[in-house]
Amino acid sequence: MNPLHQNQLHLTRRQFFGRSATGIGVAALHDLMAKDGLAAEPVISFPNFAPKAKRVIYLFMNGAPTHVDLFDYKPQLTKLHGQPVPESYLGDRRFSTMTGKANGKLMLAPVEPFQQHGQSGAWVSSFMPHTAAISDELCFIKSMHTDAVNHAPAISFLLSGAQLPGRPTLGAWLSYGLGSETENLPSFVVLTSVSKGTSCGQIFYEFYWGSGFLPSRYQGVKFRASGDPVLYLSNPEGISRDMKRGMLDDIARINEQKLQDFNDPEIATRISQYEMAFRMQSSVPELADFSEESPAVLESYGPSVKEAGSFAHNCLMARRLIERGSRCVQLMHAGWDQHNSLTTELYTQCRDTDQASAALVMDLKQRGLLDDTLVIWGGEFGRTPFIQGDINDRPRWGRDHHPYAFTIWMAGGGIKPGLTYGASDDLGMNALVDPVHVHDFQATLLHLMGIDHTRLTYRFQGRDFRLTDVHGKVVSGILS
Questions:
Q1: Cα separation of 132 and 351, whole Å?
Q2: Domain 55-220+311-478 has CATH 2.40.10
Q3: What is the pLDDT of the chain when averaged over all its residues?
Q4: How far apart are CA 144 and CA 379, in angstroms?
């Protein structure tokens, strides 16, 4: 997957020899190198092997849900409530500047009780009753850990493999490697939401769905909650569809000439995106029309499903998008940053996301789509098992950022259902059993899509880059 190879595909024979400084000698050198096995490898096609999943819906919880209050049951936290965190659990662990040194911080018991659910016996808090009801469909990974301690770097790391912005994100890699299954909708779509009245919303940075150094045609397309889902999708007043078609044809001819002259992939992107926008004028209104959905389906997603921009609305949109060929749909819901709102806003966050997340999984299953659709739920890290704030001021209890152990769940496309994989220690402080690093998670996700994560690369500034950087191993224990 080398941009130089793609560029060469556009060169005529005359252009190739005319632009090569050493002329035919370059071709001779390539022939000699090929005989010695030194020439560049041919372009690799994907998938590398039969995929278990064909598409991904990522329910990303911006701000980091608290694992010890939702899914990672630790009775020892209740026993040690109000006592200083044991020094043996801390070591040289680095926390955010809001915590500084964790020494002397007081342990905080779970806010709500836990119970076991289903045949799998999964522990789920009463915060998440709908998720608990489908626990036998889910695989909980309770030993996730990451390298970043603050939100934007941690989200960037999870979605792009690097803490600094500028790398391609997961959906961009999938679109680049696997292509698109539809000409009428983007392959990679992003939908955002935030709970009403939240005081801890996170910013949705564009680089969370960026294409980095990949051609920009692979970046995520963010759908808006009001007006046209995509800016400038509607024709201006007085411009008919036939007029628009004629204008695009003329512009395409100009761009095609420029593409022949310069072989710039961004020109090819411009051509394809103009055409996509034209087709979306017909496909998007139908996509956003829920009138043919049954009352039972609408009810299953919750009361806000018809409210554009809500998490429930976006979950149903995600199902409709993958039905129509989108490969990766990334839902980002902000507000999980409970520094001082565990006993207030955490209830709102769970109420706004729990029912719709569970409904999406079951809706996909009932339609026969879950077998080859991978659904992921989780945030960028967890929350500290110790309190942030005054333990005597219960209305303002909070937990700080915690990268050393957190929980996500996965369902569908090649994942073992009814499984709890890995474990944190008895305080939820550190990933202890079968730790899963972010790069391991990424390698596993690509594997489910039929991609060897070491082979999906792109040469940029003299180096072959990949989503998993130079790390990552497939977590075979969660694969069906």
A1: 13
A2: no
A3: 89
A4: 11
Is residue 7 predicted with pLDDT exceeding 70? no
For 212, phi then psi, to 5°, come to 55, -130
How many angstroms separate the CA atoms of 288 and 284, rounded? 6
C-alpha distances in Å from residue 102, one per residue of 99, 239, 376, 477: 6, 63, 31, 33
Q: pTM (2 decimals)?
A: 0.86
Distance CA 181, CA 419 (A): 31
E strands, 118-187, in order: 122-125, 139-145
Q: How far apart are CA 263 and CA 22, in angstroms?
A: 20
* Pairing state between β 139-145 and 436-437: parallel
CB atoms within 10 A of CB 258: 14
Question: Which DSSP category does 44 fall into?
Answer: P
Phi, psi of 152 (to 5 degrees): -60, -45
CB-based contacts of 14, cutoff 8 Å, min separation 6? none
| Contact by Cβ (8 Å): 151, 202 | yes
Instruction: Identify the pLDDT of residue 35.
Output: 43
Q: How confident is the model at residue 1 (pLDDT cuts 50, 70, 90)?
A: low
Amino acid in the structure at residue 356: A
Rounded Cα distance, 233 and 302, in Å:
29
Tell me the C-alpha distance between 132 and 127, whole Å.
9
What's the rounded Cα separation, in Å, for the pair 167 and 139? 29
Burial of 126 (0-12, 13-18, 19+ CB in 10 A): middle
- Enumerate the CATH 3.40.720 domain ranges in the chain, comma separated: 55-220+311-478
Classify 256 as helix, strand or coil: helix
For residues 121 and 209, give the distance between their C-alpha atoms in angstroms, rounded to a whole number. 36
Burial of 453 (0-12, 13-18, 19+ CB in 10 A): buried
**Rounded Cα distance, 46 and 454, in Å:** 12
Q: Scanning the structure block, which residue is given the tokens 């499903």?
A: 305
What is the secondary structure of 183-211 as a DSSP string? SSS-SEEEEEEE-TT-S-PPP--GGGG--
- Number of neighbours of residue 48 by Cβ within 10 angstroms: 18
Beta bridge partners of 223: 191
Rounded-to-integer distance, Cα 480 and Cα 468, Å: 22
